[in-house]
């Protein structure tokens, strides 16, 4: 049976903020659906009867505190699928907390614990690939699993990887346009980016072209770690940047509050492409919903625990970007968000 692509929309909402409007978003299924064989279901029941609960390891780049929306979405979807921690599932959450130099060691420890499934994202996928070819790996967020060497193809990955693939990259043109609508008098737009990443040059060129289209001056603000962020934001102020774009990088998302607070302190309107930033008080999020992607990762876990091989499960792609506006932050910055932007928002936080 084909999988309903609308089934992955979540009903949860971030803690502490009232969501005015939520629109269901859909995922594009690259190929085929899922059927669970009676034999696989019997195998799970037998394992439970013997007391061997399936173990799932969720490894996140930050911490449960800084990625609470992602972790909550994953747990919420597991509960919807019938899993109760300690009863029919053991969930082992590992926090990298930005210790990227420790990634190979920590991933090695995870593999040694022999979980039934490992769920992770970003740069940790490479470490997982190096550490095991046997344990199923679910990519909660991956940019291009084929180019990354995790899958032979999206439709038939082969090997031990499956999950969510974000082939359509963030549009700098659309991002700059949104900021320009919010602050039409702005003349200089900055991009906070890590100059050591492989896509730096292509991102730089796309950003500069997007700024030129809006007749704005592009300013590059470089940081390769959290410790360099204060200087990068100070540079933005010194260079009279009117508004800021934060690139969707793991090094920045480890602790979203750092950039959010720095931007607020300097009254710098900022747009983010990772949703945990707006949950932490950021002004605007435009990009793929990480919470929805983590929720969808739980669906892959369910399929694998019921007997499917990861190499047979097609990677799935989110088809649309989401726009979230934080009106509390806009008010604090003295910004009035145009109605033309508000009506396009998928969520508005008061």
List keywords for this structure.
350 residues, disordered N terminus, alpha/beta, Rossmann fold, 19% strand, seven-stranded mixed sheet
CATH topology of the largest domain: Rossmann fold
The percent of residues in helical segments reads 25-40%
**Largest β sheet strand count, sense and barrel closure:** 7 strands, mixed
Q: Mean pLDDT, nearest integer?
A: 84
CATH class categorisation of the largest domain: Alpha Beta
CATH architecture verdict of the largest domain: 3-Layer(aba) Sandwich
Main structural class: alpha/beta
Strand order of the largest sheet: 8-7-9-10-11-13-14
Estimate the global geometry from the Cα principal axes.
elongated
Could you give the distance between the termini?
41 Å
Number of structural domains: 2
Number of E-type strands: 14
The percent range for strand residues is 15-25%
CATH superfamily of the largest domain, by name, is Response regulator
Radius of gyration: 21 Å
Tell me the series of helices and strands, N- to C-terminal. EHEHEHEHEEHEHEHEHHEHEHEEHHE
How many individual helices? 13
Low-confidence residue ranges: 1-50
Write structural notes for this entry.
It is a single chain. This protein has 350 residues and is an alpha/beta fold. It has two domains: 192 residues, Rossmann fold, CATH 3.40.50; 143 residues, Rossmann fold. The protein is built from 13 helices and 14 strands. Helix 2 packs parallel to helix 11 and helix 3 crosses helix 4. The longest helix is centred in the C-terminal third of the chain and has 16 residues. The two termini are 41 Å apart.
């Amino acid at each position: 049976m084909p999988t309903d692509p609308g089934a992955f929309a979540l009903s949860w909402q971030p803690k502490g903020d009232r969501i005015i409007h939520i629109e269901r978003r859909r995922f594009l299924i690259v190929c085929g659906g899922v059927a669970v064989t009676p034999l696989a279901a019997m195998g799970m029941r037998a394992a439970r009867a013997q007391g061997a609960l399936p173990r799932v390891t969720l490894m996140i780049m930050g911490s449960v505190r800084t990625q609470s929306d992602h972790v909550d979405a994953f747990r919420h979807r597991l509960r919807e699928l019938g899993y109760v921690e300690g009863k029919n599932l053991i969930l082992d959450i590992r926090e990298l907390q930005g210790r990227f130099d420790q990634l190979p060691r920590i991933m090695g420890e995870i593999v040694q614990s022999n979980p039934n499934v490992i769920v992770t994202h970003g740069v940790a996928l490479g470490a997982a690939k190096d550490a095991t070819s046997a344990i199923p790996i679910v990519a909660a967020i991956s940019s291009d699993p084929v180019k990354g060497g995790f899958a032979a193809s999206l439709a038939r990955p082969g090997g031990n990887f499956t999950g969510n693939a974000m082939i359509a990259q963030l549009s700098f043109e659309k991002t700059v346009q949104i900021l320009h609508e919010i602050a039409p008098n702005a003349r200089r737009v900055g991009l906070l980016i890590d100059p050591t990443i492989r896509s730096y040059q292509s991102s730089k060129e796309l950003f500069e072209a997007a700024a030129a289209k809006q007749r704005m001056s592009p300013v590059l603000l470089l940081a390769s770690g959290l410790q360099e962020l204060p200087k990068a934001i100070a540079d933005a102020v010194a260079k009279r940047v009117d508004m800021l774009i934060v690139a969707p990088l793991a090094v920045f998302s480890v602790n979203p509050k750092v950039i959010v607070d720095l931007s607020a302190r300097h009254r710098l309107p900022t747009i983010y492409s990772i949703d945990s930033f707006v949950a932490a008080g950021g002004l605007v999020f435009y990009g793929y919903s990480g919470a929805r992607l983590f929720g969808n990762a739980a669906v892959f876990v369910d399929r694998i625990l019921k007997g499917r091989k990861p190499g047979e499960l097609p990677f799935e792609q989110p088809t649309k970007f989401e726009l979230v506006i934080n009106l509390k932050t806009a008010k604090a910055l003295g910004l009035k968000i145009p109605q033309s932007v508000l009506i396009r928002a998928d969520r508005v936080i008061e």
